[in-house]
Amino acid sequence: MGLLDNAIATAAKLVPRPIVQRIAHRYVAGETLEEALSTVSRLNVIGCTATVDLVGESIKDTAGIPATVAEYKRLLLALDSRGLRAGASVKLTALGLGLDDPFCRANLEEILDHAAEHGRFVRVDMENHPYTQTTLDMVLNVRRSHPNVGVVIQAYLRRSLGDVDRLVAEKVSVRLCKGIYNEPRHLAYKDFDLVRANYLLLLEELLGGDGYVGIATHDEYLVWHALRLLRQMGRPRDSYEFQMLLGVDEELRTMLVESGHRLRVYVPYGKDWYAYSMRRLHENPKLAGYIAKGVFRPTARPMLKLAPPAGKASTAGDIRGGSAGAQSDAHNDGALDGPIHGPSLRKFPP
Ligand SMILES: Cc1cc2nc3c(=O)[nH]c(=O)nc-3n(C[C@H](O)[C@H](O)[C@H](O)COP(=O)(O)OP(=O)(O)OC[C@H]3O[C@@H](n4cnc5c(N)ncnc54)[C@H](O)[C@@H]3O)c2cc1C
After folding, report:
1. 139 in helix, strand or coil?
2. What atom in ligand 1 is closest to the CA of residue 291?
3. How far is the C-alpha of 341 from the C-alpha of 64, rounded, in Å?
């Protein structure tokens, strides 16, 4: 991590709310379910699927959790009734992990039951290291009765190879990402190249198994190697997908889609967009550097409507979504999504 990145991360705490609001326009669909659906619809039209995340403040008690569960159920119902190609991403701490684990599990199962009724897949995001083991254990447990759930593996964690062995053996659907939290060195690789090398090692292990693989990265070096591995290992196109965050490297996203690869976009929405945006700044100093570029460079995306924080006036415009494909998104983060083929303008090597 660079000195400049560190300085930006420190300075981020001082960033005025209207500036954070401007950052959020790029990375968050909006405050409401309707805005999230509109974004998913627009993504479907351009050949992407989505996974929708309800952003939330860190939970200090369980009082607000039933409302979170209800909102996820509303989301899953709406995705189905509008025929949108998307599932959901959830964080277990938002459902009570660490406060009341049995309650958390019951909430997760309630969401998974509802998702199954509507032919949807739910990805459980991976949080920081105190939750790694309990998250994996809980997902593997509930998966016995709910096949429409998958996990996330973080390539920076030293333990991840062992976790991947376990997940491959059970054919679990895995999203592989680098990892976003600032973990201690005895738990996580700190060297950029080592994280990349471990990502590729883990990816090769995952692709050697039979589970569905979500390749979540904007790092073109990793994308190139992923394409090389996919080709060498003869992985069918419906057995994996690339995944990217909303508002990040849309050019790379387009190249992958136009080359016929499945591409899923992570779409956060919710009233706590401010906290979500600040977490992006605080949690990963490197990301803060990218976000700073986003603040000072104009973006091609239309601005999204976000209610002004703490009563301040919004400067945002609006977003228009198109009509969507009618396939659903069930047991494998895209097993029923169908192929994503756009007109092939550019081919992405290899
Ligand atoms: C779909 C998805 C789901 C994720 N889920 C989780 C999770 O559950 N748990 C977890 O710990 N982490 C998660 N992450 C975050 C991930 O761990 C990384 O922190 C993040 O993706 C950046 O790593 P990278 O592989 O893109 O490589 P980097 O080296 O960080 O980025 C590669 C390039 O992408 C561009 N870029 C990356 N991020 C941004 C940005 N915000 N704005 C502008 N440009 C950017 C830059 O050009 C950069 O050079 C997820 C990421 C994605 C894409």
Report:
1. helix
2. 42
3. 41
State the angle between helix axes of 192-208 and 160-169 in degrees (0 to 180), rounded to the nearest 10: 10
b/e for 320-345, b at 16 or more Cβ within 10 A? ebeebbebbbbbbbbbebbebeeeee
Annotated active-site residue in 42, 120, 123, 125: 125
Measured between alpha carbons, how far is 190 from 1 in angstroms, rounded to an integer?
9
Residue entry with tokens 């756009």: 342
Query: Within its chain, how far is the Cα of 176 from the centroid?
Result: 10
- pTM for the full predicted model: 0.84
Residue 175 among the catalytic residues:
yes
Question: Per-residue pLDDT tens for 35-66?
Answer: 999 999 999 999 999 999 999 766 889 999 99
What pLDDT score was predicted for residue 20?
72
How far does the centroid of ligand 1 lie from the alpha carbon of residue 218, in Å? 6
How far apart are the CA of 106 and the centre of ligand 1, in A? 30
Does residue 256 contact residue 227 with C-beta atoms inside 8 Å? no
Residue 69 DSSP symbol: H
Over residues 187-229, the pLDDT tens digits come to 999 999 999 999 999 999 999 999 999 999 999 999 999 999 9
| Domains of the chain from N-terminus onward | 2-275 (3.20.20.220)
For residue 196 and ligand 1, the question of a CB distance below 6 A is answered with no
3 state SS of 60: coil
Residues ≥6 apart with Cβ < 8 Å to 220 = 252
| pLDDT higher than threshold 60 for residue 239 | yes
